[in-house]
Write a structure and sequence with these properties.
alpha/beta, 45% helix, elongated, single chain, 10 helices
Length: 249
């Protein structure tokens, strides 16, 4: 019996479209925001965009290896902007503000078709709904849920930045299960990656793993294709209510 359905955000509730122009625009804004707090970055915008991409990959690798999430103050000072040795100059609240901008403006986020209809159908089935997201801010995801008109459907919103661990660490799923009051074995989770979402479900003993197809991140999952398999692979969120109904008959 499935009693709760929880979702990833990026690549699942919305698709993420990358554009070098957006990356440069973010870098321009970042330089301006830092200048306002007395931090001057001696680097041109295109070079800064490239550096942020490289350093973000280094942090991503560290976080994948450890399955931990650092406070965003540390992420910016010790990874994303480490070459500038700004020594904790990026502190609250600026670190949260630029972390939100990093996910909101550096890429183009497009909500999935049938998003609201899917949530409504699942709620009519009596499902408890929620979110588990790997994210370096604590305010981006709640804002996205409000913007998409689905915040009121969510009984829990668990973010790695808030709890200090990242998928596929089973602890983040355990935190969510405790918050919604449902055993992991009676929870379904929907995400777009094998390496984080499906593997996390397996690590935690989640009852049902649903992967939504996302070709743009397939290169990150190459090492997992032969060893990690979801219970269902879908192409649209609107497929989920029928899957849950079939599980509960």
């Amino acid at each position: 019996m499935i009693r709760a359905v929880l979702f990833d955000v990026g690549g699942t509730l919305h698709t993420v479209q990358r554009d070098p122009g957006l990356a440069d625009r973010f870098s321009t804004t970042l330089k301006q925001k830092l200048q306002e707090v007395g931090v001057s970055l001696p680097i041109e915008v295109p070079a800064l965009s490239a550096l942020l991409g490289e350093n973000a990959e280094r942090y991503k690798q560290w976080s994948q290896d450890t399955q931990l999430e650092l406070p965003n103050v540390q992420i910016w000072n010790e990874y994303y902007l480490k070459e500038f040795q700004i020594r904790d100059a990026v502190s609250d609240p600026i670190s949260e503000a630029i972390s939100v901008l990093y996910d909101a403006t550096r890429v183009h986020n497009v909500p999935q078709p049938d998003l609201l209809e899917t949530m409504e159908a699942l709620r009519k089935q009596g499902m408890i709904l929620g979110v588990i997201s790997n994210i370096i801010s604590t305010t981006f995801v709640p804002k996205v849920l409000e913007d998409y008109g689905i915040a009121s459907y969510m009984s829990c919103v668990i973010m790695s930045e808030g709890v200090g661990v990242r998928k596929p660490n089973p602890a983040i799923f355990e935190i969510a299960a405790k918050q919604v009051g449902v055993p992991l074995s009676e929870m379904a989770y929907v995400g777009d990656t094998l390496s984080r979402d499906v593997l996390g479900c397996r690590n935690a003993g989640v009852g049902l793993s649903i992967q939504i197809s996302n070709p743009s991140i397939a290169h990150r999952d190459v090492a997992f294709v032969d060893t990690v398999t979801p219970d269902y692979l879908i192409h649209k969120l609107s497929e989920i209510p029928a899957i849950i109904a079939a599980q509960n008959t």
